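ABC transporter related, pasting as requested.
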Amino acid sequence: MTGSDVSAPAGERVGSARGAGSTPVLAARTRGLRKVYGRTVAVDRVDLEVPEGAVLGMLGPNGSGKTTTIRMLLGLVRPTEGEVELLGEDMPDGAARALPHVGALVEGPGFHPFLSGRENLVRAAAFEPLLETRAIRRAVEDALERVGLAGAAHRRYRGYSLGMKQRLGLAGALLVPRKLVVLDEPTNGLDPAGTREVRKVIADLHGSGSTVVVSSHLLSEIEATCTHAAVLHRGTVVAQGELADLLQSESNALLVSTPEVDEALNALRAARISARQWTGGVRVELISTTAPEVLRTLVQAGVPVHEALRQRTGLEDLFARLTEAGDAEHMSAVDTIEEGSR
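Structure tokens follow.
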């Protein structure tokens, strides 16, 4: 098995799966999840929801509780308090029923150093409850090809680079079709080409209907691959939801495209609405007004409006607003606990 010996070692954006009444069907969720090591609170009252069919990115500074949350989600660590549900099963009691459908790469892969990459995968595949013995060889070759390791599969694992080890761990998570794939820092040690391949794997999983949870500190990777996001800070979730909605909620300006910029500025200023010239139109600060009020003012003044868009906040800006600087002491303590528990 790969990673932390989880049973079954275990795109671009599209909408999440929805059930009746547009209520999300959840592949995983936690309620009041808490983990305490001694006097250090690593995870504190986390309520996390992972919609079925989504690609959820877990963001947070080092020591924010991401890995500890994932370990509890997969039944690798028992929570101090709270509840975990995975693929409809209460954890950890339902682990035997849920985990064969889960692929995971957590805290880096763990393989036998003197065996080749192929031999390691064959051994891992032998423990897959959903994989017939006669299908093992084909499954191994397909997984190696999928992560770009077919050419190095004969080499001993001890000679692999960090990026190659990550690829092999990812291959272990993909030996059989999964309902849920959990990847903890999957691009760690990868070069740009490897990072693009991981993006493609995630997109393929998403396209096939699998749910994917990706933990990463690389904001660009989350923004490029994920449909949903959960931001963790100081061991708790400070924001979660569809990524587009999270970014939209942080917007505080409206970009209005119009050929009559001066007329637009005069009309808005007469209505005591803050605005300034912008490329192709005007930028309106939505501080003491609303987008409908801005458009109403312009239309009533006879100003032609070709397009109006809320300014899109980047993920980096959103992340900076949700997490505070200067928490080095707190984060260092939690990070040490997380590493010591491995």
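Note for the archive: The first strand starts at residue 26 and ends at 37.
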